[in-house]
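Intended use. Records like the one below are meant for learning the mapping from a protein sequence to its folded structure. Do not use them to infer anything beyond what is encoded.
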Amino acid sequence: MNFSEIDIDETHIRLTSDLDNHDLKRYIYSLRWDLKEYISRNPDFSLSLEAIDEDEEAPQIVKQMIRASSIAEIGPMACVAGTISEMSLEYLINLDSKYSIVENGGDIALINDKKLLCGIYSNNQILDNNIAFEIKARKSPLGICTSSGKIGHSISFGEADCVSVISKSSSVADGLATRIANEVMGGDSEEKVYNAVECCENFREFFEGVLIISDNNVATIGKLPKIVETNEFNVKI
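Structure written out for the chain above:
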């Protein structure tokens, strides 16, 4: 397996792949160029906190962000990291990769022909970042995206330690993680988690499973991979 990092402005990729020569950095440059050029002509795209109408003339990355954000009922920029991860993985699969993990600031797209562990980072004092999803070998892509109201620079209107969404699309998972995390609000931890679970019910057809952590309350919805204890936070073989 080959590990590499790709840093281009706000995009910070950690890549593990069975491919040696893929030139993924050039592809990500092209995605970012398309997005920046579109925003220069449509500045409201980057500012909207609500879903926007489809644009048939837009580049593929923009179309994918619009579709995912429409599903999640949020602004399209909330899906940018997951969309870059997903399109990067599609690029690698087209080069015949059977095992690639693309992590973009915590938003992951992967395909794996062998079992792996994916650490769950919540900064929760009770769990202490010692848990991970055990992902079985699979032949189809998977998205694992996380949002938090306490960690990171992304906009969140909730107070979640962690909302992790697993979906066949990391673009959709990214949007739903933001949408559900926005609902982690209330008078106490139990109410916050309850409100987020209620929100999940509106999007069940678009995800496989959701993990919600807020203070001393944890909820799971749908079908999640097995959660195991681990001594290190990482994505590893």
